[in-house]
Protein 1
Amino acid sequence: MSHLIPLSRVAKLVGQPRHALQEMIRGGALATFDGMVELDELLRAFPDVKWDDDAEFRRVAEIKEKAFAKRVFERALPDKAVLAARLTELGDDYAAAKALLLHYGNVLVWLDEKIEEIDEDASAETHHALHAVRAFLLRNLAEMPVDAAQAQAAIAQERILKIMSAHVTIQPSGHEFFVEGNDTLLEAALRNGVSLNYGCSNGNCGECRARVVSGEVKKVHAHDYVLKEGDKEAGVILLCAYAPVNDVVIEANVAGARDIPVQHLTAKVKSVEVFNPHMAALHIQTPRSQRLRYLGGQSIELSVDGARGRYAIASCPCEDRHIEVQIPRRAGDAFAEAVFSTLKANDSVEVEGPFGEFVLDEDSPRPVIFLAFGAGFAPIKSLVQHAMSLELVESMDLHWLDYETGLYQDNLCRAWADALDNFTYVPHPQSDDLDGVLAAIVMDYPDLHRFDVYAAGTAAQLAQARAHFVRQGLPAVRWFEGATDA
């Protein structure tokens, strides 16, 4: 009986990103069956992996030891009801495996008895064959397979991962993510950058209704929204109130840019980060009960004391209630002037949005080129981080062209390049010859027809860049742009 493991969990077990495994699959180095990897295939493809079956337990133990507050440890573990259900399921699996082994043992006894029975009246030739079969069985049962210890450790680690987290697949979009700790399905989805529909996120509005296609979920939060009996029978739940017990498939809509309504809320300033005299980042936090829904690359309008401005969001939707907005200092921009001079921690800022459709094409498996002109890095940063959280992009190349704002987060981009094997960062110093810079960039991509390009800058910069990329072979439909002066 084969032991199948989902590809996403294989990635966690062997410490490889999904895109690396998918490259192995395309190259024939790793065989899969309906997105699952058989245990023997896993051991064959990764013979050098050291299976550490208590690593996850040690991680939790370290959290417990370091935490001075009890809630930190509790946050690392699943909800107690979910944990109990997962342990019960593990116990059932163990009981089933043990019952099967007992049955196999009985079969071997019956087989031995049958050999004795046949042997009584058998010819010398049959007698020899029967004893050869018996010797073969005894020898192979006594010998431990070469990879038995590895298989045991791999299964043990996979079981620990199943206790600590559950794998979720969203249909029909195909998004996948893990629910860890005591997150609900909604919290985990948002933490992984998956924009599921929701409203209040606390069980009142019913906007996060979804249907459980397979797997088991457990209610971990009470909700006031009343589900109809027909919905309950069909497996409909509220994503904000349920957590998965095991690996589940959920039928739910993933919101696009046009699906997310414009929201109005009041946020608190966490900090103002001044990069240089021309560029600053405003870090704000939304209320616990009113998180802002948006997609990477979108913009919001901010206002304080009558000063108002629209700016690109520079953070990832996966960052919970934290929002980063990068703001260039420009003449006549009263809000920007307030950021540079008067805004401070705990001040209130009015937020409206999101706006714009400069967002990732999540259905595209193609490699991506990101092109940022000066302050256009803000929406590009949001897109890069969103792509990282979704793990959908084969590879990412970031070209940042310096303008008056400078390459103000150059170290962050270099850190991404150091940490990710599918990320390349190329900074470009300020130049009066933009055509020359763009020509040099496109010449590095003789196969531009394979790529998607996301570019952010002024309308003039974007028009100039688009001409170069399309002329070099990029299909026009794969050029996505966000104008910073719109």
Protein 2
Amino acid sequence: MKKAIVASIALFICISSWSQKLTKPDDFLTNDFHKERRELVRDKMPDNSVAVFFANPVRNRANDVNYVYHQDPNFYYLTGHREPHAVLLLFKDKQKANGSSFNELIFVRQHDALREMYDGARLGKEGAVKELDFKLAFEGPDFAEMNIDFSKFDKVLFYDFEDDVRNTSEEADLYDLIETFKEKVGYGKDAMAIETEPKSSNLDTETLDNIMRQLRGIKTADEIDLLKKAIDISTLGQKEVMKALEPGMSETEIQGLHEFIFKKYQAEYEGYPSIVGAGHNGCVLHYIDNYKPEIEDGELILMDLGAEYHGYTADVTRTIPVNGKFTKEQKLIYDLVYEAQEAGKEACKAGASFSSVYQATANVVNNGLVELGLYKSTSDKDMVNPETGRNRYYPHGCCHHIGLDVHDKGEYAALEENMVITIEPGIYIPAGSPCDEKWWDIPVRIEDDYLVTKEGCELLSDLAPRKSDEIEALMTEKSIFNDLDLPSLDEK
């Protein structure tokens, strides 16, 4: 009877696996992309070195429920593998063992018929060969048994550990893989072992990140296509919410409308926790509570959300009047931020520095706030908040890479062609600020995504209007959500 049950489970897994293969979207990155990325890493590695990449940990939500798994971006970039409990080894030079040569090894989660019945089919080593196109693939337990002499390499490249991995009962889980690696390389009981013996150790926790920044900061055509899809989905969400918004809605409801659009277009995740802040909440730069029960007539609402499509995330912010019409003061601040963003766009081109783009936006903001009377002058004394040490009303930078992370890996010296970055100036005037009360609780951020070109930059997030008059005009249009009339829970 037991054998029959196991056989039935195995049959179920085979059917499920085949079904998943049939229904998987066909626009993921190809195996050729991931293989090319591995070759580029190998080209940049030091002589006689090995690079070791681990999958992301499984994150616990509460009790026996975990968060939806999200792969480590570097690991996904190099393999396309989306399952936990895995490790990748890339060798600079060809290695030989048992009469065969190789320059990469992947160890993936082993099959478990019972767990796969609950959680879904696992790729396994056969799938890693067939679906990920690795020549040599093994299961996790093989990592401990395999005799890899790391001492023969001049450099063992890896990211240092954060001690945030749970030790589960599963054999060769990520915790076990890391502990096995530490034993094999002589890492010691903690990360300080690297620092205490710098002359005798071949362990290197810095070079690998330098390599990945160089590669991931410049996007391929395939990556740009996925980013454009994520950006289009995000801006369509912004556009539809502009039409649907009205006083009395909750921040959570508005977040839900955005994320419904994300799911409608098959975006698997949000690229980061959604920010929906009305009034004073919009002055909190990374406000993610989104819990205000009723947004108020006359407030601005700042909506910073990005869809993640096949691993690549957009990052788009719009700030709009809840009632569809900017007040005089709101419009003055909004138009100033828009002008600053346009100045940043003009400065954005291959060869320019990131700091020059920021400075272009800051000049517009600071001079404009002097004209409006919020600063006495553009001297540091007038502009700097003594409690934070930052510009009082424009306290953040304006540009970052986007890609597999919302703050993606990349170099931050000079802009290069095919970088995809944000330009996001903002002005935030919380209540109690040292200015006329008519300006209080006005938060404005306009954030868009740009592709850097030789001549300048291409605005990718133009489906959602940015000009104040265009926003007001759009907010008079009917939304698909206007006819959504759910019963009140209090009336049942």
Protein 3
Amino acid sequence: MKRLFLLASALMVPSISLAQVATVPQATAAVATGMRQIVLAPNTEVVVTPNDTVTTKGKQVKEGYKFKLSTVFDVMQDGIVVIPKGTVGEGTVTWMTNKGAFGKSGKMEVSFDWLDLGGRRVALTGSHRQEGEGNTGATVGAVVAVGVFAAFVTGRSASVVNGQQLRARVAETLTFNVPDNAARVMTGTLAPQATAAPAPAPPAATPVTPPQQ
């Protein structure tokens, strides 16, 4: 009887050990897949620059002209880089005038439209007004010297050049997913937008049977 008890105890030990080992990978996987969310508030400032020079010179652009832009610095929240430096987007020339006679300079206004974050367009707000340097002093001198020839003295074109820092702002609340145990100064992933649940269909009307005469 004693031998049978010892044999049964020996057979039970391996099954307990295997069960304990089997639970370890599951716990590790749960920690590895843990995520937390970071929220970037609307109106957060983003510094951008055009990828190429946008100028009124030679009537190269007109109102409605689209141009590419990029972020100049990382945008960070809670120690996490949520919008990396170099993120591309788009802007629009919303208003402009060309340079003219009597030292009139060109003028231009551009707006900031969106950034591309992982294939999703994030709306921006803000605008920038750029004016060319006028030649008022030269115009006055020409009027004194030769009178009507001052009409041939023109101002300068307005140009927004690559590297010029322009201030835009995020137009919406952005939510990012980052690992729970992530070290600071890393890139977050933009969380998918929540979709509203469809409204339930109204119940079908029940036909009314007229009373029997």
